Structures are given as C-alpha cells and as structure tokens.
Amino acid sequence: MRENAAKHKLERGETVVAVSGHNSSHVIDFLGPLGFDAIWIEGEHGPVDFADIPDLTRACDLWGMTSVVRVNQHSPGVIYRTFDVGAQGVVIPHVNTAEEARAVVDAAKFHPIGHRGMFGSRQGYGDPDYVHKANDETLLVVLIEDIVAVNNLSEILAVDNIDVFFVAPSDLAQSMGYLGGVNEPVVLETIDKALEQIVGSGRTAGSLVNDADVEHYIGKGVRFMMTSWTAWVGSGAQAFQAKVKAANG
Question: Could you tell me if 150 and 194 are in contact, meaning their C-beta atoms sit under 8 angstroms apart?
C-alpha cells in the first residue's frame, strides 16, 4: 500500500503544500517533478466525476504526491466511494457542527474508528491487508467555511481522527454577509482568529494561500496550504508580454 506522504508530513509537524487549479492527469503529471506534496482535485466546483478520479489519482501516485479530492457533500457514500476509487485524501465542505464532523469520520474510517463501507480501494490493489492499514493512510480534511462553523469551532475541534481543519474564505465571507468580500477586514480577522483557535487547540490548521499572503498564514501556524498554479501562469504571461512590448519599442 502506498504511503500517504502528506498525512505523515503533517504528523511530523511539517508543512504541506497542495496545488489546485486543474482537473487533468496530464497537468498533474507536468506538476509532478516540481516538488509539491499534494494535488487538490476539485470535485465540488470542478467537472470531476467518480470515473475521472482513478486516472487523476494515478498521476499523483506516479510522482509520490498525495491525491486530495474535494467532494461536494458530506454524504457517507460520497466520502467512502471517493476513497474506493483511489483518493488518498478527501476534503469535506460545510462541516458546521461536531455531529457532522463525527459523521464524516464515521464514513471515512474503517472499524474500530468508523463504519466505512467494506469494499477496498484502488490504493489497495495487491495488498490483502488494505482494510487494516487504510485508517493510517487516509487523509481527512474538513472545511470550516460558514460562520456557524466558526461559532461551533470548539466542539468541532474536539472530534478526533480529522487531520486538517481548513478555514475557507469565500463561503465564510458570504455567510457573514459579505458576498465576494474575502478581503473585508472583519472577514480576515475572523479567519485569523479561527486559525489561532485551531492551532491553539493542538490541531492542524489549513488555509487557502497565495504569493501575497503565504508568509502571513505560515505565521499564523497554518501547516496545510492550498494554492493555485494558474495565477503563476497569468503573471508570467503578463510579464513576458510586457518584455516583448518593451523590446519592440
């Protein structure tokens, strides 16, 4: 069974970078040699279906990157089916209460922790002991992305067997009445306080980061970071075209 490199880095207290912005095995293969820890596969807002996940995660396996799939609901069948077809990690949206967090764990983990459906996984091909090892090799990320979740954060943080508590800005801003207002001071303050609470409780904090704020969030103790490579393409393209224009007078 393949080791979940990102999960074990977090367990050692190290930082993990997951890169997103694509749903192509070819792009994942291209990103493989660049040294990222994980690939964030977008199954909530992107065009990823269950039939796509095996090849996307195989491309991650090829380069030793952890495949992390964001699903579109915290339904038990969606969660364990995502693991069954090859994901090493699952990101669960809108986890707003401790009860919902416990249900997520129950769906993601085999006995004695939970009641994940007994079938196996593409990750377990060739390993007859997969079900006995899977709990230690499956990464579980819950999204704190509604103000109700922030208000319930103390109770949510008390739920065991969750690897990352990820504070997501856009939906959080919307739930606070600031549609598209991720940079509103009150939203940024709420994010910072939630991250401080997660870190202060001894749990692992996650956040969306970019070139402009990565140092800030590392300073807040974030150890699971998701970023997109598409912004780098955009800025590089603009810089290149500016050089062409300047050279042509």
Answer: yes
